[in-house]
Design brief:
heterodimer, A: 388 residues, alpha+beta, Rossmann fold, OB fold (Dihydrolipoamide Acetyltransferase, E2P), 2 domains, 6-stranded mixed sheet, 5-stranded antiparallel sheet, globular, B: 279 residues, mainly alpha, MetI-like fold, transport (chain B), transmembrane (chain B), transmembrane helix (chain B), MetI-like (chain B), membrane (chain B)
């Protein structure tokens, strides 16, 4: 079947619109160029280059002290880079003070002004710009409507719940229509139930106002749910940048694989590398691992095979084919989480493999119990091969 | 065992408070004494209060003290607030420890030394530039300002150190320049601490005898000086009446000041607890 040139062209255009990072002609909206920030002798951010495109909801993900907040604060103008350049919409931000930048920030603590009402808090940014009083009134009412806080306009911050404060903080930071909205752990102070609900609300609001969002978070689930793209940071360096799918399915390092979701990492040595396949022999697992694509490396090199627990099969009987991708061990721990069950299987080498299984039917007795000998196997396409 | 201990604790409490407050209570009771002898009870009367209010010297001294108190408390606020701000918001700078030590020094300096050094300063200044011409209300006011400013600085600093700096950053982020942030955000937030600092300064100024004696001039007798000099001529029940009034005034102000500090502390902890409670 032939696909017409025109159709192909349209598909391409579409991809370029929704995924500007895959379009070589797209101009980045925010650009970090070899940005370094030192506090004394400590490198908080170490030679980071990063492009963020318009209308993105970009997440900086990492543990505490990885430099993600410092990167955000440099964008806001609270810190100046030790070296390197930051551009927003093509303008060099060097020497531009925080109060003149086209960015607004939503703080982790919300940082509401305690002596002002909700209304006054939201209006603050417009008052600084000398907007007329009638216009302020109109815009504040509209913004409070957007975050569903109109009823609480006259309240003081200490009379609000955590979730309500979060909405006020969002309204206050959005009212000036900033080019970029910076969010520092936007949902960090909310409880789990509220957090899940607010994640989608935030994404909806972002789509409605069309502002570019840059978010800092330590919560991988939050980043995966909300972000168009994620940069995984560690020790001041960006480890990997990509869509949630790319990062989860094709991690480039053990750090990323570990940080996003759960993973079994199996160390092994490359014994056979062809154009179409590769075989890694692992003493740790006690088996040979067949990979359905070529691995860039020479035989004898050490690799790590990353296996997601939900991609593993657990059975009582040995599978038909036991040459590759198949190990056996004893069930050591069982965790029943309702929707899924997790099993920790101890291999002969002492290595523990984690397997999760969905509980798609109600089972009174668990399928496997402690000390059962079981087989764990997986498809050739389930593994990612990592070299660092 | 536990009842035994509680008896001990209660008696300790009673003795402690008695030691502190019985003398004051006696002064208050004897201010309503009919007789002229301070230590012999001769029936209830308010005549010493009447005679106190017709004593022009006393009233003048009280008026002086009030004016000095208001002036020096206000000046102390104007000087102490920036000092407190610098100590908590300037980050690390060279000589920071020295600076904060020097600010706190007047709090522990013996009053005699403060008084004497200020007297020397005023005399030298008068000889060199002709100001201040003689000593009087203005020199006492300046002297009181110096040690009250230290109290204000400490109160303001402790309030600011506990305050979340992101509130000020948020204001800057929304387009407010640093000077505006101070007046629109920081100042209203530390207002209770400022009022408490003012009241504390006012009370300290009202109480001071030693420093005022050093730098006072003719016609600038403050209330404590007047009381001290009249006591030396013999204690009259009039002084008891005056003491009662002063104790009442001072305790009311101290109570208000501590309530304000307490309220601002509570507001602060409630504001942060609200955010933390959600974790």
């Amino acid at each position: 079947m032939l696909v017409s040139e025109a159709v192909l062209e349209r598909v391409h255009e579409d991809v370029h619109k929704t995924q500007p990072w895959n379009n070589p002609d797209a101009v980045p909206y925010i650009r970090f160029e070899n940005v370094t920030k030192k506090f004394g002798d400590f490198y908080a951010v170490d030679d980071v280059s990063l492009d963020i495109y318009r209308h993105e909801l970009f997440a900086l993900l990492g543990g505490s002290g990885c430099g993600k907040t410092t990167l955000l604060r440099m964008l806001a103008g609270f810190e100046e880079p030790t070296s390197g350049k930051i551009y927003i919409d093509g303008v060099d931000m060097a020497g531009v003070p925080a109060y003149e930048r086209p960015t607004n920030m939503m703080f982790q603590s919300y940082a509401l002004f305690p002596h002002m009402s909700v209304e006054q808090n939201v209006a603050f940014g417009l008052v600084q710009d000398g907007v007329s009083r009638s216009e302020i009134k109109e815009l504040v009412a509209e913004m409070l409507g957007l975050v569903q806080m109109s009823k609480f306009a006259k309240r003081k911050p200490h009379q609000l719940s955590g979730g309500q404060r979060q909405r006020v903080a969002l309204a206050r930071s959005l009212i000036k229509r900033p080019k970029v909205l910076l969010l520092d752990e936007p949902l960090g102070a909310l409880d789990k139930k509220l957090r899940e609900q607010t994640q989608f609300e935030l994404v909806n609001i972002q789509e409605k106002v069309g502002t570019t969002f840059v978010m800092v978070t330590h919560d991988q689930e939050e980043a995966m749910t909300m972000a168009s793209r994620i940069a995984v940071m560690n020790e001041g360096v960006i480890n990997q940048t990509g869509t949630p799918f790319e990062l989860y399915e094709y991690p480039n390092s053990r750090y990323t694989a570990n940080f996003l979701g759960q993973v079994n990492l199996i160390e092994g040595v490359l014994v056979d590398d062809d154009e179409k396949y590769a075989v890694i022999k692992s003493d740790e697992a006690g088996c040979e691992i067949y990979i359905d694509h070529a691995v860039q490396g020479h035989e004898g090199m050490t690799f790590w095979v990353a296996l997601r627990p939900e991609r593993l099969r657990i059975t009582k009987e040995a599978p038909k084919e036991t040459k590759y991708n198949c190990v056996s061990g004893k069930v050591e721990e069982i965790g029943y989480l309702g929707g899924i069950s997790t099993y920790h299987v101890r291999l002969e080498s002492g290595k523990r493999i984690k397997v999760t299984e969905p509980n798609s039917t109600r089972q009174i007795e668990p399928r496997y119990t402690w000390e059962d000998t079981v087989w764990v196997s997986w498809e050739a396409g389930a593994a990612s091969v990592l070299n660092k | 065992m536990s009842s035994k201990r509680s008896t001990f604790l209660i008696s300790a409490l009673v003795f402690g408070f008695a030691f502190l407050y019985v003398p004051i209570l006696l002064v208050m009771i004897y201010s309503f004494n009919e007789g002229k002898l301070v230590t012999v009870w001769a029936g209830f009367s308010t005549k010493w209060y009447v005679s106190l209010f017709s004593n022009d010297g006393m009233i003048d001294a009280a008026w002086n003290s009030l004016r000095i108190g208001v002036m020096s408390a206000t000046l102390a606020l104007a000087l102490g607030t920036p000092a407190g701000l610098v100590m908590s918001r300037f980050g690390r700078f060279k000589g920071r420890t020295l600076f904060s030590g020097m600010i706190a020094a007047p709090l522990v300096m013996p009053e005699v030394i403060t008084g004497l050094s200020l007297l020397l300063l005023f005399v030298t200044l008068e000889q060199m530039i002709g100001w201040p011409a003689g000593r009087g209300l203005s020199t006492i006011t300046i002297a009181h300002t110096t040690f009250c400013a230290a109290y204000v600085a400490v109160v303001v600093q402790s309030r600011l150190s506990g305050m979340d700096t992101s509130v000020e950053e948020a204001a800057m982020d929304l387009g407010a320049k640093p000077a505006k942030i101070f007046f629109v955000i920081t100042l209203p937030m530390i207002l209770p601490a400022l009022l408490a600092g003012w009241l504390l300064s006012f009370t300290l100024s009202l109480d001071d005898l030693v420093i005022a004696s050093f730098v006072a001039g003719p016609g600038s007798t403050t209330l404590p000086m007047k009381v001290f000099s009249s006591v030396r001529l013999g204690v009259s029940p009039e002084i008891n009446a005056l003491a009662t009034l002063i104790i009442l005034a001072v305790s009311v102000m101290i109570v208000i000041a501590s309530l304000m500090i307490l309220r601002s502390e509570r507001m602060r902890s409630r504001a942060s607890a609200g955010a933390d409670a959600q974790h």
